[in-house]
Amino acid sequence: MNRNFCVVLFLVAFISGCNNTEQKNPEMETFTHGKVSIAVDNEISFLISHNLKQYSNQFPEVQLTEHAVNARAAMGELFAGKTRAIVVARGYMHDEDSLMKAHHLPIHKSFHIATDALVFFTRRDFPSDTISKSTLTEVFSKRGSIKASLKQLSHEPVLHVPIPSSSVISNLIEYCGTSNKLNCGLSMHYYSTSDSVQRAVLSDNNSIGVGYLSQIVNKQNEFKMLAVCYTDSTGSRVTKKVHQSMVYLNIYPYPVKVMGFLLEDIRNLPFGILSFLAVEKEPQKSFLDAGIVPAFAKINVYEEE
After folding, report:
1. Which of 55, 180, 181, 224 could lock 94 by a disulfide, CB 3.0 to 4.6 Å apart?
2. Residues contacting residue 304 through CB under 8 Å, at least 6 positions apart
3. Domains of the chain, with CATH numbers?
4. What is the pTM of this model?
């Protein structure tokens, strides 16, 4: 039986300590005073940019700039000390984690900002509405076939994905890869932007794109996101549509955390900005409105009649 859900959000926290009237030393950096540049994952920069601008507008003595780069480059800047804060749609990759352990480096102070989801999407006229989790694992880790499980396809679909340094590929490896890499035998084309991935999918009705829920949820007149079938903990076969409520209830199998990482674990301007994104009312509601799950809120999910 198909069920529809709606999500109601009650925001319960506000950033503290941002008193714009306090006396300041011109050289002293605070939550509301100073200069900083933040690296933002280009796969989700559209979710973050307007919220960073809102912070700057709220606190005129903050000089805040952002630059959108792929997730690997953002992590590289953080590791090299070239940026003091980043926002990316992933955690540490295996090699990054190994590097930190090898050099006995402490983990970076982090903030969970929101939860997106990894999705597999097609044109509206693609001959299937579903794909199985086991098929995806076979395809990306064991050079398996999609056509073998989707009999209605006349031939193997082409896969369109972002470049390997993107957070999308990092999450695809995390969920479907093997030995920290992809081992895919199907034709897979790489693109530098999510828009390019989407254009490629639109050009061919026998293709599948990989991206994020936030990128596709408001474009469902052009695309459909394939529901994922899997066997749950009770042994029952279930199919879960890609929806904000399914991500919140933790029953969609590919959630993606949007994270902020700090170079310094001190209560400075970068700390204030990432705290703002992670707990303040306006940015958290903007993530809800974008169709994903805000990290810091009381959420009630109702089944619609």
Report:
1. 180
2. 3, 4, 5, 6
3. 35-115+256-297 (3.40.190.10), 117-248 (3.40.190.10)
4. 0.91
